[in-house]
Each structure stands twice: as C-alpha cells, then as structure tokens.
Write a structure and sequence with these properties.
Layout lengths: L4 E2 L2 E2 L2 H16 L3 H13 L2 E2 H8 L3 H13 L3 E6 L2 E6 L3 H28 L3
Antiparallel strand pairs: 1-2, 3-5, 4-5
Helix pairs in contact: 3-4
Length: about 120
C-alpha cells in the first residue's frame, strides 16, 4: 500500500479507512446514469424500477445494475410494494450533496468564463 503524506504526517489507519469509504460512495456516483438516478429521486422522491427504466431509456437489467451499485454504496434503499420495487435515498443529505455539486459546477464555469474573456480580450 502507498503511504499518503500530508503536511509531513502520514495518513493513519482511521483516515485511510474513512477516505476509502468516501471513495466507494464517489465511485458509485461516477457514472452519468447513476448521478441522474440519484438526482431524480432527490427531486421527485421514490421511483420504481419500471419508472426509472422509462425515464432513463435503458433496459431493465442495466437500470437494475445501476440501482444495485447505488444501494450497495449506501446511497439508496429499496422497498417492495406488491410486485414493484421502489428506490429512495437513504438520507436527505444526498440532496444537499447534489446541490453542492451544482455550486462547484457554477464556480468552475465562472473561472472558465474569466479565462476565456482574458484570452480573447473581453472586459
């Protein structure tokens, strides 16, 4: 295992485990379809697999694999109602995280606009 050194200190086991757990969640979100699923559920509430399949435009098995990965990472939970399985967020903080991502995107856009304006001489 590689050592990570920050400010002259080596990451301890607790820090390594925390970083690893966070990376697992971020990896689960590292696909546009999964980001869309999480964002859609955050905005509209629980959805069943059939609804998500229709909204995404993919086959049921593909959507189910995405949902299983998000559930495994702890981002979603499921509940069965009759023959339908509904997926919902495990906590409201995921909505806040998605909002924070939008803030990062806006800040990046502003920086890129500034660089572009400087490059072409806009003021």
């Amino acid at each position: 295992m590689n050592k990570i050194v920050m400010n002259g200190k080596t990451m301890n086991e607790t820090e390594r485990l925390r970083a690893q757990a966070r990376a697992t969640i971020l990896k689960a979100l590292a696909h546009p379809t999964r980001v869309y699923i999480v964002d859609l559920i955050a905005r509209e509430g629980a959805h069943c697999v059939c609804e998500l399949t229709e909204r995404i435009g993919a086959d049921t098995s593909t959507v189910s694999r995405h949902l299983a990965l998000l559930k495994s990472a702890g981002l979603l939970f499921d509940r069965k109602e009759g023959t339908a399985v509904y997926y919902d967020l495990t906590c409201d903080c995921i909505s806040e995280f998605m909002t924070a991502l939008e803030s990062v995107l806006r800040a990046r856009h502003r920086r890129e606009e500034t660089v572009y304006s400087a490059a072409v001489g806009d003021t």
